[in-house]
Write a structure and sequence with these properties.
about 290 residues, alpha+beta, Thrombin, subunit H, 6-stranded antiparallel β-barrel, about 15% strand
Length: about 290
């Protein structure tokens, strides 16, 4: 039940109580006036009867009749005065009746108006109920979609976790292979043997033109920090290419690329200090126009 409907019910109840009180008061006043008028009529009849009796006695008794007539005249005047007062009270009661009838008419008009307002409130409540049902249906649809999306996110999260573990394992293998490769190269150098692959002996270098991008993933393995960036061979990135890593112009260290893909690449970080933290979103830059 809406607030307007509750207000309407309270107003109708209050007006009903007021109307009942007014009608009961009017009925009680009317009954009292009728009783008093009947009593006065009975007194008048008694007085008339008394007057007639006294008149007969005066005719029978002679001199006493004048005195009795005077007494009856006084009684008559008193009765007339009393009747005049009753007439005034009756006029007042009639005025009250007219006022009560006017109030009843006003209450009836107000009741009709409240009835019309109740119809409007009923229609408004029905419209609001329909809108609420529509919103509930939309909420159910959205909740169903949210559950579906949540299930998909959970599935993707599981896949990401598996891929992360596989990537960590692959990086550990790459690190191990890199260290083994460095040890083999050192032994070959000690033996006076040189490799035909120049990329293994090629020192880190910067690009001949500007290449910039951002770090998308960070992984710490042992004491080394490996990162993945969002530029690859399509952008001109090569193995052993050197990038400067910074955040809003603050230099954090250098990145040397080890593995290159079409749209991404990865490599090992050399930090300016052990306290430096590399996070996703840091910028990388290589090239002559730095």
């Amino acid at each position: 039940m809406s607030v307007l409907t509750k207000v309407f019910v309270v107003l109708v109840t209050v007006l009903s109580v007021l109307l009942v009180a007014v009608v009961v008061t009017f009925a009680a006043n009317q009954e009292n006036l009728r009783t008093r008028f009947q009593a006065l009529n009975a007194d008048l009849l008694v007085a008339k009867q008394t007057a007639r009796t006294r008149q007969a006695e005066q005719e029978a008794h002679g001199d006493k009749q004048g005195e009795r007539l005077a007494v009856l005249e006084i009684d008559k005047r008193q009765l007339l005065s009393h009747m005049a007062g009753l007439d005034v009270e009756a006029a007042t009661a009639k005025a009250q009746i007219i006022s009560l009838r006017t109030q009843i008419i006003s209450l009836q008009a107000l009741t009709a108006q409240l009835g019309s307002t109740g119809d409007i409130l009923s229609k408004t409540s029905e419209q609001q109920r329909q809108e609420l049902n529509g919103l509930r249906k939309q909420y159910d649809i959205v909740q169903t979609r949210l559950i579906t999306v949540s299930d998909l996110v959970n599935a993707k999260s599981t896949q990401v976790g598996v891929l992360t573990k596989e990537l960590r394992f692959a990086k550990e293998q790459i690190t191990g292979l890199g260290k083994t490769n460095e040890q083999l190269i050192a032994k070959l150098h000690q033996s006076g043997i040189t490799l035909e692959d120049e990329s293994a002996q090629r020192p880190p270098f910067q690009a001949s033109y500007r290449i910039d991008g951002g770090i998308t993933a960070v992984e710490a393995i042992g004491g080394d920090v490996f990162v993945q960036v969002n530029v690859g061979s399509n952008d001109g990135v090569e193995s052993k290419m050197k990038f400067l890593v910074h955040d809003q112009g603050a230099f954090k260290g250098t990145l040397v690329i080890d593995m290159v893909d079409l749209t991404s690449s990865s490599g090992r970080m050399t930090l300016v200090s052990d306290d430096e933290q590399i996070v996703s979103g840091d910028h990388i830059l290589s090239g002559i126009e730095q």
